[in-house]
Design a protein that fits this description.
- There is one protein chain.
- The protein has 241 residues and is mainly alpha-helical.
- It has 2 domains: 145 residues, no CATH class; 72 residues.
- It has 11 helices and no strands.
- Helix 4 packs antiparallel against helix 5, helix 5 runs antiparallel to helix 6 and helix 9 runs antiparallel to helix 10.
- This is DUF3159 domain-containing protein.
C-alpha cells in the first residue's frame, strides 16, 4: 500500500456535527419501513414490508392508476380524473385513521396527490399532475449521488445508526465502497425515471407517462430494496447462534 494510502487509513475521520442527527432520522425512517439490518428477517419479508404489504401497494398504485385510466378515457374531463385520484388517496387515509393504524404512508400519498392535482388544475394540463414526482426524483437522486460521491453516503449513515456504529463505517474501505455503489444505484433509479418520463411529459403523452410511472415505481423499487438488504447483510452478518 502506498504512503498516501497509509495516511488515508491513519487519518481520523471526524463526522460533521449534523451526521448523527441525519443518521438517526434516516435510520428511523428505514426501521419504520422494515429495513433494519439488525432484525432477523428474510429478504422477501423485508421487501414486502418496505412496500407496505398489499395496503401499501394499493396506496401507491391506485391513485395514479385511476387518474391515467380516466384521463385516457375522458381526456376532456381533467377535473374528474384528478378528483377521483385525490378521492382514492383520501379514502386510504380515512381508512387508516378509522383503524387507528399509522396514517403516515397514506397521508403522504394524499398530500402528494392533492399538490399534483392543484398544479394540474391551475395550468389545465394533465401532464402537470406528474411534476411533483419529477421534483421528488430529482431531489432524492441528487442527494444520494452527492452524498455517495463525497463519502458520506446517506445509506451508510442510516445503516451506521441502525447497527449502532455511527460513522465508524467510514474507516472501513469495504463498507465505504459498498455504500458508494448502493448510493449510485439508487441515484441511477431516480435519474432513470426522469430520463424516461421527462420526454413524454414534454410531448404531452399523459397515458404513456402515467403508465411508465407505474412500471418504474414499485417494480423497480422492490428489486433494489432486495439488493440493498443483501449487500448490507453481507457487511453485517448475523451472529452465530
Amino acid at each position: 500500500m502506498s504512503a498516501a494510502g497509509d495516511r488515508e487509513e491513519d487519518t481520523p475521520l471526524e463526522p460533521p456535527s449534523a451526521s448523527d442527527a441525519l443518521g438517526a432520522a434516516l435510520g428511523g425512517a428505514a426501521r419504520r419501513m422494515g429495513l433494519d439490518p439488525s432484525a432477523q428477517a428474510g429478504t422477501g419479508q423485508v421487501v414486502w414490508k418496505a412496500m407496505g404489504g398489499w395496503r401499501g401497494v394499493l396506496e401507491s398504485v391506485l391513485p395514479s392508476l385511476a387518474f391515467v385510466v380516466l384521463f385516457t378515457l375522458f381526456p376532456d374531463a381533467l377535473v374528474l380524473a384528478l378528483g377521483v385520484s385525490v378521492g382514492v388517496a383520501a379514502l386510504f387515509t380515512l381508512v387508516r385513521l378509522i383503524q387507528k393504524s399509522p396514517p403516515s404512508a397514506a397521508l403522504g400519498g394524499l398530500i402528494a396527490a392533492a399538490a399534483a392535482a392543484a398544479l394540474a388544475l391551475w395550468t389545465g394540463r394533465g401532464e402537470d399532475n406528474f411534476v411533483p414526482g419529477f421534483l421528488t426524483n430529482a431531489v432524492y437522486g441528487t442527494a444520494l449521488l452527492v452524498s455517495a460521491l463525497i463519502g458520506w453516503s446517506l445509506i451508510g449513515l442510516a445503516v451506521g445508526f441502525l447497527m449502532g456504529e455511527g460513522t465508524a463505517w467510514r474507516r472501513d474501505r469495504r463498507k465505504r465502497r459498498v455504500f458508494l455503489w448502493l448510493g449510485l444505484a439508487w441515484a441511477a433509479l431516480f435519474y432513470a425515471r426522469l430520463a424516461v418520463q421527462l420526454p413524454l411529459y414534454f410531448a404531452g403523452d399523459v397515458t404513456a407517462l402515467g403508465t411508465l410511472k407505474l412500471v418504474m415505481g414499485l417494480p423497480l423499487f422492490a428489486p433494489l430494496v432486495a439488493v440493498t438488504w443483501l449487500a448490507v447483510r453481507a457487511l453485517y452478518p448475523r451472529p452465530a447462534a
